[in-house]
Design brief:
Helices cover 71% and strands 2% of the residues. With 187 residues, the chain is mainly α. The termini are far apart.
C-alpha cells in the first residue's frame, strides 16, 4: 500500500520556487531543496522525479505568480506605454521584503553554461518567448512601424528586461528608473 503524502505539493513547490528564485537552478542542490521544502529526498524524487522536475514545477508556480502583471500587459491597449508599465510592475513584483530578487527565469538563465540541462534551457526559452510575444503584441499598436522593426524592438525589450532583472538586485531606484526611461526613449 502506498504511503499517504504528508505535504501539499503546491506549498512545497512554492518553497522550492522561492529557493530557485534566490539561487538559480545550478546553485540549488537537492539538499537545499530538502531543507527548504521540508521533505526528504525520497519524497522529492517520488513526487517530482528529480531536481529538474522540481524546477519545471517551480516555473509553473512562477508563471502563476507573475500572471497579474502579464495579464495586465495582455489587456493593455496603450502599446509601448503598456510595456513600459510592465517594466515598472515587474520591479515591484520582484521585491521581497523591500529587497529585489530579480526574475526567477533570468536568475536561472544567467548561470546556464554550455553544458546546461537542455530541458531546463528549453523551458527558460519558452517562458522568455511568451513575455517577448506579449511585448510584440503591444508594440503592434504602432502601425507606422514595419513588422521587422517591431520584431527587433521586441527582442531589444526582452533583452532589456533581462538586464533590468539583474540590475534591480544591485542598483538604486533612481538608476533603475533612468534605465527604464532611457530604454523607452530609444523606441
Amino acid at each position: 500500500m502506498a504511503r499517504k503524502k504528508e505535504y501539499i505539493e503546491e506549498e512545497v513547490i512554492e518553497k522550492a520556487m522561492n529557493l530557485f528564485w534566490r539561487n538559480g537552478y545550478e546553485a540549488t542542490s537537492t539538499r537545499m531543496l530538502e531543507k527548504e521544502m521540508g521533505i526528504n529526498q525520497f519524497s522529492i524524487y517520488s513526487s517530482f522525479g528529480s531536481k529538474q522536475g522540481v524546477f519545471l514545477e517551480s516555473i509553473k508556480c512562477y508563471e502563476i505568480k507573475i500572471k497579474n502583471i502579464t495579464d495586465k500587459l495582455k489587456a493593455s491597449t496603450n502599446g509601448v506605454e503598456g510595456v513600459r508599465q510592465y517594466f515598472y510592475d515587474f520591479i515591484e513584483f520582484s521585491k521581497e521584503n523591500e529587497h529585489p530578487r530579480g526574475c526567477m527565469i533570468t536568475n536561472a538563465a544567467n548561470e546556464l553554461g554550455e553544458n546546461a540541462d537542455p530541458i531546463v534551457q528549453s523551458e527558460i526559452i519558452k517562458f522568455t518567448n511568451i513575455v517577448r510575444d506579449l511585448f510584440l503584441n503591444s508594440l503592434k499598436s504602432d502601425t507606422s512601424k514595419c513588422g521587422l522593426t517591431l520584431e527587433r524592438e521586441a527582442n531589444f525589450l526582452i533583452i532589456s528586461m533581462f538586464g533590468l532583472s539583474i540590475a534591480s538586485k544591485v542598483f538604486s531606484q533612481i538608476q533603475i528608473v533612468d534605465f527604464i526611461e532611457t530604454t523607452f526613449d530609444n523606441l
